[in-house]
User: Fold Protein kinase domain-containing protein from Brassica oleracea.
Amino acid sequence: MEFWRRKKKARKCFLKSGSMFLQQLIADCNGMSNPIRMFSSDQMSKATDHFDPMSALPNSFWFTLYKGVIEGRSYVIKRFSEYVVRAEEANVYNDIALSARVSNHSGFLKLIGCCLEFPRPIMVFEDLEYIAVNERGSLGSEDGPLLPWNVRLKIAKEIATAITYLHSAFPRIIIHRDICAKNVFLDKNGTAKLTNLTVAVTLPEGKSWIEDRVTGIIGYIDPIYARTGIVTEYSDVYSFGIFMLVLLMGREPLFVASNMDGPEFTYYILDYARDLQERGELIEFGGGSKDMRPGQMKMFLDLALRCCAMRNEDMPKMILFWNLYAGSSDGTTTTSIRWALSFGTSILKHVKDLLERGEPLDEVTDTFYTKMVKDMTSGQRFQMEACVALALRCCGKVDESRPKMIEVAKELKRIQTSL
Assistant:
């Protein structure tokens, strides 16, 4: 009797969830998607030992990840929290539909299938021994060692490429809306994967924006989007700029630090940099820099600044990141006179002044970067400056001044292979 009761409940859940999934699939991508497999509730329960917490990976408030074996093959199993299903049920099916659509791209977790026989739908991903990036942009515990610079740069490039795919590969632009360190995984080959499309939104065909409720992680949310509710591809650009700064500085977007008098305060990463500017102090680079290639610092700085620019027309699209990885060593660009205000530091203001006067950036070497980059060559400093500048440009206060993700991706590619 219990067996048939469970079967009846599973069928009821499947019919309800299947209907909602189909509706979302049609709404998001006109019903066109990569085929995925349907798993049974029995397979899910057995694979996770009835969702035993001991088989769970470090998780989020919104979902829990489990490692499980089905038919002799290892998978990552994503189970949404009860809160998500109760509050925003459509988001669950949105994640399934969009993940299926992008699963063949190397920049995303590959969705194998799902199970709709529970009140809370379950997603099943390919298991490539994923490791989650933490809030400081490193691996493991929050106080663990930071990643080498070349790994951080590679992560930035690969995530920029994934976002570019969302923005440009389909007739209707997909905005992720939740780009942050904790939604990035590294597989066993060190390839970065973007995940969690729960709150992603698909713009109407031919449209560049939509008005919707504000969602995302504090510290990563675009201020324009937070103020107006208007979602554009530049909302992702801003979040990506913050992600770049997290990778660069090895700090969370919201962290505790001491001021010059000693007491500790909670800072946003951008506010912290402004405070450094006012006190004439330096922005720190988290971790060593011996693996930097010449010129990467300057190019990263320039691209970061464009992502933080004040107007959309000054912001690169994400494809520009790709260009930066393509081999050009020319990272100098003209930016708005207000970019220092968007993420103020003494370094950035000084670099801006040098660029406007047409003077070489080598002058920065003996002044503002002494503590931060004392073990770098001049070429390596150039490369780091470019990375910071790009992140700051992504974080501009006005949409029109930010780059698009396709521009950002090209620039990051050029940084990686520069000089």
Observations:
- Residues 326-351, 360-372 have pLDDT under 50 and may be disordered.
- The chain is about 40% helix and 15% strand.
- The domain at 149-416 is CATH 1.10.510.10 (Transferase(Phosphotransferase); domain 1).
